[in-house]
Each structure stands twice: as structure tokens, then as C-alpha cells.
Design brief:
Elements (H helix, E strand, L loop, with lengths): L7 H28 L12 H15 L9 H22 L12 H16 L4 H28 L8 H24 L9 H64 L5 H15 L3 E8 L2 E7 L5 H8 L1 H6 L8 E4 L10 E8 L16 E8 H4 L1 H6 L4 E6 L5 E3 L7 H9 L2 E10 L2 E11 L3 H29 L4 H13 L9 H12 L6 E8 L1 H8 L1 H19 L4 E6 L2 E6 L6 H16 L2 E3 L2 E3 L2 E8 L7 H17 L5 E3 L2 H22 L3 E10 L5 E13 L2 E3 L1 H11 L2 H19 L6 E5 L2 H4 L4 H12 L6 E5 L1 H6 L1 H13 L3 E7 L6 H4 L6 E4 L1 H5 L5 H16 L3 E4 L5 H9 L4 E2 L8 E2 H6 L1
Parallel strand pairs: 15-16, 18-20, 20-21, 21-22, 22-23, 23-24, 24-25
Antiparallel strand pairs: 1-2, 1-5, 3-4, 4-5, 6-7, 6-9, 8-9, 10-12, 10-15, 11-12, 13-14, 17-18, 17-25, 17-26, 18-19
Helix pairs in contact: 1-2, 1-6, 1-7, 1-14, 2-3, 2-4, 2-6, 3-4, 4-6, 5-6, 6-14, 7-14, 17-18, 18-19, 21-22, 23-25
Amino acid sequence: MRIIQVDQQARAVTHLVLSLSLLLAGILILGYRYWEPTQLPLYHTMSSSLLLGAVFNGLSLLTFDLHSKRSWQPWLSRAFAVIGVVVAANGLFGSVIDPYDSQVHPITHGLMGLLSLWLALRLRGRVAMRVQALLAAPIALGMLTMIMLHFYYQQPLMARHPIGSLISCTLVLLAALAVWNASRAGHEYLPPVSALTTWMVLLGLAAATSFGLLTFHSQMNNLREQGREVAQNLNESRRSLGSQHLRTFERVVERWSDYPASHHDRLMDADVKAHLEDIDFLESMMLLEGTDVVWEQNKNGDSHYTHLWNIDPYLRVSAAASLTRIEMLIASRDNSPDGTLMFVRLPVEFTEAHPPQQEQPERPFSLLVVFDVPLMLAPQTRIMESPITAYTMLGRGVLIDYAGYWISDEQKAYLASKALFLYDSALVTDYNTSGNPIQTYLVDLSSLQERANLEVLVVFAGILLVLMMALTVERNRELVLQGRQLKFQAEHDALTGLFNRTTSEQVLADRFHKNKQQTVLFIDLDGFTYINDSLGLQVGDRLLQVLAQRLEAVVGKQAILGRFGGDEFLIITDKVHDNQRAVKELTDKLLAAVAQPYRIMHHKIYLTASIGVAHQTDDQYAPLELVQRADMAMHQAKRQGHNHVQVYQESMSLQFKSSAAMRSSLQEAIERNQLALHYQPIVRCSDTATVGYEALLRWEREPGRFIPPSEFIPLAEMTGQIIPLSEWVFRRACEAAVQLQQHGPCKVAVNLSTLHFNRSEFKGFLERTLEDTGCQPQWLELELTESILMENTDYAVDILQSLRDKQISISLDDFGTGFSSLSYLRRLPVDKVKIDRSFVAGIKTHRSDRVLIGSVIKIAQSLNFKVVAEGVETPQQAEFVTELGCDYMQGFYFGRPVPLDDLFES
């Protein structure tokens, strides 16, 4: 039973919070977008159409109530929703009201419009509302998944700006959740929310949304300031670097003007070679007359840059015929694809001499130097690495990055569609007064996405906090009902609705000392575990529910009925104390109720139960003693064949105590190695020679007092102690087999436990034991009963065959006492069969036993089994089984079981 349900009051609060979230978020963000003064694309994170859609959907939801008594309210809600549909269509098919391109994905407009359409249709009826809820749920789940993907991919998925992408998904998510909630509650009346809760929600949501907007505004201002700083740093570094290198060549030009005529050419040539060698980013130096090249020297020794100067249209068009100041030109991208090449012209005036072959210069001379810009900017590039990248725009509309490389068309498209523009300034140097534009972009949005994720999480947390506070305030009046439900759940079983174990014990404790005539009936179902395992827990649970109803009908108000645990039930009554007739009538009704067939799904099930009855007596001092006695009686009823009623008797307690004591003593005997193996010889019938020994376990609990194996072996099997016990026996028997080989070849037969054999690790254990003790497989013989082979025939046959293949002998004990068919026996991988001692003991007095043992021997021989006769105690018995064809004999006539050391002494 659910204690705290999402009732209509909670739905009304959720409806209010979601509706106001949409309304306030849309109004505040829309107002901020038009109020922000700079109006840079950095701030254009949201679509006005989507924001207006959120506003009108919020208004439609606030006035949404299918059961309103105000006639105008449904029409007003529908009108708001219709406006939301129109606004969504505007954003989907080309916005008229959006002044900026925010690049919000069209699917957000489509989904918001679809939600508006559902609100406008105002479908009635349970089926229609459920369909509407089922349609809204995938939208909410999809938007929630999209928000989570922002955390994984660290990039915007639904808009250009990270915060815009997240807000778009969030608005659609809130709208979908609101429509889903309204659809789930729409077929019932939504109770009004108190004014206190409404104002608390309004102020809390306004604070959460305002906090998100202020945080966003602060971050955008910081980004813009960082963009301005990057542009200024780029401008300063370019100015400093340009001035430094251009002054070098200004000094070169000045020296050329002052060189004496006799050494002019030699000194110019030395200057050129020195600068080409010392400046790694200097590619070429040329002397121009007008715009024509007189000579060129470069690092490659060819005229590559002369050719580039003559063919590059950008250089030829931009170069001035008459040069009075320094001129800087950039070669086209086609002629310098590996990076920007800058051509710098400096005017040269020869005063004392003229260059060779130029006696009467007609046009002015100039020095043309070619710089590899990426190489020149390399030191600054390492310093300027940042998520915010600056680009310089050349006059021809192309961009180069801060490292001096051309911006590809793909990179330019990325800047236009993905990166965020931050700041625009001009590159102004001492030699470039026109100023090329410098534009800064936020290229790596991962850090911005992280901050956006954090902002949205904070806003979500604020909305959830407001929702939780509102639910707390509104649900205080339900605390009494919830308390009752909690009390019911604490006292009753969740599956059957009956009292649980704790309550049943408490009821018994309350009555135990007040009315000392209590009787407890402990009911346990027979074989219920098999129903769960074969038919499934669902069938089992339903069966318990039906049974609980039947037991309640039988017990009525005259007793307390509880589910004690699993398939156990407890009945407490004072109506049948020491009244055998009343007990029998009640238990007969209970057994009859349990025995009636159960129809669960397509199954027809029959069931029985075992019942233990215990009456309160004066020697009981605690209530649980009465339950314990009823439990003992129930287990005794199960041992008597199930579907039985047993009244507690004092002997049961003594028996259980004796078993418990023996269990503890047996465990101590195992741990302290107080058990021993005795060995009884097995002789060959033809010559009475000893061919082997059977290892028999003995427990000397007290000096001279041995506990029969028939008492402690079943107890060990029931408690699981048989496994370590069996492992101990195998190890000791293998060690004995190794010692016995020193006195002649023989086998040691070991009795095999069913539980140990059925363990999957038995084969591996046996192989390890043989290896550890040095025992050869042919020295060992395993004795097993037909019960081992009958429980899991195929598994048993496979394991035994694999052991037999390793030369381990297999012997079938107590042959003739079971019920195996001959066709079944033919499949068994058995070497020997042992005729039970009960047949041999009756040879002398019962002719039927003599006939029967002869038949058993013939059956075994027909199956090619060797035959061992057990319990041979007289010469007549030995002679008789030999005449009948037995191969081996075993019994007191040939030797009693003795310890291994005594065996060697004899």
C-alpha cells in the first residue's frame, strides 16, 4: 500500500510551479534580451518566438481547468494556447518577430507548438487525457536526455550559444511536464492552492530565474572584456614586433645611402647575406627600381619571390609606383598557401654612388623584404594561446589567425555559424595608419558550456526547492492520513494484508500474561517452494493472497491471524485451550481450506499444509516459547508425512535439544579431529584371501562409547556438516590405501555421500585428494546407494563413468533393497554390487531369503557385476554364498572393523 500518494493536491501544486516557471522564465528572458544595450550577437541566445511560446503556454496552463465553473476561463486558456501555436509557427517557418538570428533548432519551435496545440484542443475524458499524457511524456524524456547530453559532449546541441541551447531544452521540458501533469489530473477537479503557497512560489521562481539571468549577464560581460583584452594584446604585440623588425631594415637602408662608391656593392651584398642568415623568418631581399626587380637574394638562391612579385595581382595592384614611406603588402592566399607572406617596401636614396649598371636612375629605388609571417609570430603564438582567438581581416575580406595562417573556408564557416563573436577593433601600427579590423571570437565553447550547465543546474535546483517547499506547506493537512497509513504498513504484511510477524508477536505478548489460555497454531505449506521455482514468484504471491482470504474466512473474529514469514502463518486464539475437539474442528477446517484447488492465471494448483499446535502452560515464561513449541510440532507433522496436525509434546523438545547438542558435539569432533576410520576386510570367496577393506566412520563421543553412524550421519546431512566430514573421510581413506599397498595389493572402499557427490566440485576434489595423498585411482573403490543415481541420473552416470575411466572402481551398496528396473541398472557404470546383510542374515531360517539372494546374484551376474555378500557371520553363510556364485564376502566372520594400526598388527 502506498503511504504518500501523488494526489490531486500535489498535482495542483506541481501545476502551479511548472506554469509559473514557464511564464516567469519567458517574460524575464525576453525582457533582458530587448533591454541589454550592446545588442551584440553574444547576447542573442534565445528566440523571441520560443520565449513568447513559453509565456502563452504558461498563461494557458494557469487558466487550465476542465471543471471550472467560470465560463470565460476555458476560453481564455484556449485563446492563450492558440496564440502559442501561432508564435511557434512563426519561429518554425521564418520569424517575423525575431530581430536577431539566435539559430535555435526548429524542433524546439515544433515541440512547443505541439504542446500549445494540445492545450488548445482541451480534450476531455479519461482516455483522451491519458493519450495526451503519453504524448507529452516522450517529449519531456527527449528534452531531459538532450540536457544530459550537454554535460557529456560539452557543446551546444540546440542553439549556437550553450546557454541558449540549454534554456530552449529546459523551456520545452517544463512545458511538456506541465502538459503531462495537467493531463494526468485533468479528469478530476484540481483543488485550489493557498495564497501563501502561490506567493511563495512566485517569489521563489522569480529569484531563481533572476539569479540565472544576472549570472549570465556577468559572464557575458566578462567574455566581452576578455575579447577586448585579447584584441588589444594582439595589436600591441604586432605593433612592437613590427617596429622592432622594420627599424632594423630602416637602418640597413640608411647605411646603403652612406656607403662609399668603392665598396658599395660589396657592403650591400654582405648586409643582405648577413640578414638572410641571421633572421630565420626573412625569406628574401630585393632591390626595386620603381616596381621592377633589379636583383634578388633569398635563402634558396633562386628568383622565386621575384616571380611571385611579378605575378601576384594583389601585390602589383597595391604597390605604389612612387614610394615615400614604408609600405606593407600581403601576398594572395593562392600564392602562399602554407602561411602568410608579407612584402615590406622601404624607400632607398643613394647619395654618393648608385647601384651597378645604374648611372642615371630614372625611377626611385626601394628595398623589398619578404617575411614568413607564421615563423615571425611563432614566439608570440605560444604566449597567446587561449579559447578566445583573434583574427585580422585584410582589405580583401580574408582573415588570418593570430599565428599568421590563412583561415580556410571551413574555418570561416565555423566562425560564422558556431563560434561566438566578442569584440571588434582595428590593428594600428606605426607603419599602418589605415588599420585592419581585428575580430575576437570564442572558438572553444567547452568552458562556456560548463558554466552554462552549472547555471541551469542551479536554476533547476531552485525550481525543485520551490516545488518541495510548496508541497510541504500544502501537504501538512494530510499528515494524519499518512500517519494512519504508516501505522497500517508497520503492522500488516504488504502482500496479504494480514498482521505481520512483529505485530503477531506483540499481540501474543500482550495476551500472554493477561489471559493464560492462549493457543498458537503454526501453519506451514507443504512444497510451496516448488511452486515458486516452477511457476514463478507471481503465481506464488497470488496463491498466498488467496490462501490468506480463505484462512481469514475460517478464523473470523475468534482468533488473530498473521503471516509469520514466507509460507508460514500464525493463529493466536484463546477459544480452544486444552480442548482437543475444538482444536480438531478448527484444524480440519484449516486443512480443508488449504486443500481446495487454486486457480491462478491458467494454473490449477493443489496444496496441503502441516500444522503445529501448542497450548500455553505454567512452565512457559516468554511468549516466544509458545511459538517455538508450535513450530516444533509443525516440523514433527512434516516428518510424519505432511498434511498433518501435531500437538506439541514434551518429548519433542527433548528430541530437538538432543539433536542440537549432538550437532554441536559433532562439529567439535570434526574440528578437533576426534573421528576415526575403522577398516573391515573384504575376502575373495574362492580362497578367502583379503582383497580390500571397507572404511567405516566411527565417532567415540566418550571413552568406550561409540555413536552409531545411523544417528549422526543423517544429522550431518541435514545440517550440511556432511561435506567437511566426507572430505575428511576421503583424505584419511586415501592415506590408508597408500599404507596398505605396502602389505600387498588391495582396494579401500569408501561410502559416498549423496550431498557431497551432487556438488559440482566433487570430481575436482577427489582428483586433488588422490594427487595430494599419492593414492593411485585403482586403489580406491566408491560405494554408493541407488538414491544417488535416482536423483539426477544423467549427471550421476556421466560423473561415475568419468571416474571409472580413471580406473576408480564403483560399487552399488544395498543391492536388492531398492526399486530400480533392470533396464535402468544396465545403464549404470558399476563394477560391483553388494548384497544387503538383511538377505544374508535370513539364509539359515528363511527359505525365501535363500531363493531371493540366489535371484539377486543371478541378476547381478547377468549384468556383468561382481557380487559382494555383506554380513557374513558364520561358516554356513560363507559356504552358502560361495555356492551361489558370490565373488567376495564381508562380515564379522572374517574380521570386525578395526583401526588401521590394529589392522597391521593382526
